[in-house]
Specification:
With about 100 residues, the protein is of the alpha+beta class. The protein has a domain of about 70 residues. Helix content is about 35%, strand content about 20%. It contains three helices and five strands, in the order E-H-H-E-E-H-E-E. The longest helix has 13 residues.
């Protein structure tokens, strides 16, 4: 399951969020809040040598976090860190935008 994290308030509708999600491409992250979220998410891995339990794709102003559907704990962490950094989350499979 993908979770897209971007500056709040984020897209105003599901259609807008879906269109933005579709156009994201891999590029350097530039938004300071997204950079801080990305850094903190990576720092949560208890063993830096171990593989992380998610995949990340970073865009200029967004991060896509691929979370295994059964990993509610990780989903909660992504949501918590996004809110902490003033970001919004979009979950395409649920057609859900969270701010």
């Amino acid at each position: 399951m993908d979770v897209v994290v971007w500056p709040a308030p984020g897209p105003s509708s599901y259609a807008e969020a879906a269109a933005r999600y579709a156009e994201l491409r891999s590029s350097p992250v530039e938004d300071p809040a997204v950079v801080a979220f990305h850094r903190e998410l990576l720092e949560t891995c208890p063993d830096p040598g171990a593989p992380v339990p998610w995949d990340l794709t970073a865009g200029a102003d967004a991060v896509i976090v691929h979370v295994e559907p059964e990993s509610q704990r990780l989903m909660d962490l992504v949501t918590l860190l996004a809110l902490k950094h003033g970001l919004a989350c979009y979950v395409p499979s649920r057609q859900e935008v969270m701010t």
